[in-house]
Amino acid sequence: MYNPTTQGALNLNNVIWLLITMALVIAPHAMRLPLWITAACIAAGVARWHIARRGLRAPNSWIMGMMALAVACGTWFHFRAFFGREVGVALLVVMLCLKILEMRVKRDALLVIFLGFFMVMTNFLYSQTIFIGAYMFACVLFFVATLVGFNRVNTEATAGERLKPAAWLLVQAIPLMLVMFFLFPRISGPLWRMPSQGQATTGLSDKMSPGDIDKLMKSDELAFRVDFVGATPQPFELYFRGPVLSMFDGTTWSVMASAGTQDVVMTPISPAISYRITQPASTHRYLFGLDLLATVPPDAEITPEYQLRSTAPPNALRSYEMKSHLRYRAGNTLFSSIKRSYLALGFGNPRTIEWGRSLRAKHGEDNVALVEEVLAKYRDEFEYTLEPPKLTTNPMDGFLFQTKKGFCEHYSGSFALLMRAADIPARVVTGYQGGETNSINQQLVVKQSDAHAWTEIWLDDRGWVRVDPTSAVSPLRVSNGVNAALGPLNTFESLMAADKLGLLKAFQQNWDAVNNKWTQWVIGFNAERQQSLFSWAGFKNIDWQTIGLLMLAGFMLVGAIISAPLMWRLYRVKTDPTSATFKRFTAKLGRFGLKHEAWEGPQDLRGRINHAESKLSVASQTAASAILESYISLRYGVESTQTGVQKRAAVAILRRMVRAFRPRSK
Q: What stretches of 192-279 show up as alpha helix (H) in DSSP?
């Protein structure tokens, strides 16, 4: 059998600590990894524990090579790639587990721990919330504690002996971390950007088919936050414009490939309102702003359809200041070539098209009356619901003439098609409507459940005019939100509705306010905010050289602060009156030929002085023994616990004894 004493097997307790710590850091990836990788990691951990417990040999290099090849092939067949975020993390996890299985000596374990620190960072590729930050900090604490255990010699560390020095080391590292965070030059774009395969992003897309938006409306995820300068507009005024869908193929509305070269013209009717939007990172380039935009933020552009798009790479948290006019006239003229695109009817839906044409014949040139008739029919005969009957072929016909149940995408899509059939240019605008104001910080929080779709029609005397047919069916949806119109859409909303004291609501708003600060000052601490911090500190137009000097000064200051207690403790030891008096005593002995060795304790020194072959006279031996007895009592005995006057008196007696000591030979 494998002999752990002669072969240097790893201590079982240390291995268990390493396995638990590695399980903690890999756990957040478990739901994202293929099931077979999770199973392989569990199997590797159990096998490693069994090897350490029984003192067995780790698998040889041939077996490990075959296993590595097998998992590499399995990863390729699952992801069909070796590059990207998901496949990179998967390979790192499974190879790290194989390395744990292969460990033979302490050096292998230390390598696994260092790779574990890197594994901690991979979790931030997926989430950078407060919870993940705190959880990963705890994982780092356990890795350092494991490292402490592996570096103990000849003794086995208890949990307290691991965690206490690990915690102290991390506490000492926090000031250095803050210096790096605030002073390290910010780069453009997010640090955690890597390509991914087939990643679905929660949010609006550039297409809309029946059943798309209802998935968002059942989600409690954050869409963006809005900080208004001044009062928040009324809920029915909060239309945040997103992707504009102008192409219709009979089933799906999608973004037009090109809206031509027409100018972006907008005539304000009401004063502009100012606000800042903070939008979480996502893989699309859509930015949102209130209808209708008066300014365009940096690194963004506005399309002829008044759609705001980012020109910077995606996957970054965006925070941008905006101005909008809530009352406006959009557009002066509509070129005939573009007008034809806004009149295209797609394929199918013959009854809808026939109804639209009959409306035109009925109302002649009176577009307002035509629109009012359609809205009245919606109001009288249709029902607002997130669970409408399924629509297959000719979905607009099925909705308007059969089911008559739906939500915003059904109403906006069918209304736009009716208008086109009636020879009125129309398009669907998707975005978000409403939101909830946090009473803690007065910030408007817009969630995915506030996703909405409405219609814009072209009237020659008014330009593009917003018409929201959903408001005709469910005015409560526009004025108070989807929860007010349909009731709670998820478990947490149901719990809040049942909480008569409002405790859950208060907790949610306070937690949201904390999350906002985390987003603004940690996740969103970009080059702009760093420059603002430098300007506040008096550094205008700071360059990288100055930043480097500030970092160096910060490191030196932190080092001085951390070192000060250690230096003071060393100084106190060196200037301790008891130790200083003892050194004067040993110096006298040294001049007589009795050199005190650094390793020699006072008891050993006294034994050497009192030895039969000692050169000291009996009187000198007696005096030296009395001095050493007094020193032992002051340093290690009862008198070592004394303070104040008693301590100073005892030291004074020892000092007089040493001063009076004159070594004499026999």
A: 213-217
